[in-house]
What does this fold into?
Amino acid sequence: MTEKWVVGVDLGGTTTKIAFLNTAGDILHKWEIPTDNREEGKYITINIGEAIEQKLQELGQSKENLLGIGMGAPGPVDYASGIIYNVVNLAWKDNYPLKAKLEQVTSLPVYIDNDANCAALGEMWRGAGEGAKDLICVTLGTGVGGGVIANGKIVQGISGAAGEIGHITVIPDGGAPCNCGKTGCLETVASATGIVRVATEKLNSEIEYQGKLRDVFQNKGKVEAKDVFDCAREGDSLSLAVIDEVAFHLGLVLANLGNTLNPEKIVLGGGVSKARAILLDKFQANFDKFAFSRVKDSTKISIAILGNDAGVIGAACLVMNEN
It folds into this structure.
């Protein structure tokens, strides 16, 4: 190994993605291991360390040429200490010393941030951000994740909780419960699960409606976000109403964030963003409606292009920012 490599880790509740990258952010090797949550998650860092060692042996490479490990973790993280405050879908106790544990196992410098922040860094460095130093990245998946980058640096906040865009309140009264403990969060409307919830509520309340989404619901006993988008493309009135609601809340929230930060780009990623024109055209119209004129004219909306690689690329970027 003549060039230095960086390790990027994207820690998920069921799967952990690991990659070796060069210092330019190119993925050289990538693989996955199961996330082992047994015994309060004590095996997670051990397994990551062993996976890195095994892959180096397979490739005939030396650990001495690794600059360090960057990791994106699900939950608020104190960047300086590498402590993860609390996680919903991992078995660790609150205030888990993740950085110290992984450094102990690997004998390498470790840098840790929130997984959505890492996805934002990845898109900035090698993706749709195209090197923009001021951007907002929003991931519309099972939940709604967010990362804010100002002058090339992630905005952390005083306790690692900056950029929690999915937990901006959009329905102050009578909103649906969110996993965070609040009600009416953007995540309860604009995530895949939120879209399903809104669609199911409309199906249950609009008894006289008979259309394509009703047919799907009766055939499957449920609907998925993809069903809503597919039916909307065929002109289904209830599906279009769901998308109007989602696009309104998403456009309003991101216009307000745009008015606050005036980023060069707002990058939308995650499975919901794959709906493309049927959702994004309506979102753009709402963004333009609510954004300050200079923001509307200067902030560009882009679709994330790195997919599942954004996390490991952004995690590697954490290492590069320190070297």
About this structure: The two ends are 19 Å apart (CA to CA). The mean pLDDT is 94. Residues 237-261 form the longest helix (25 residues). DSSP finds twelve helices and 13 strands in the chain.
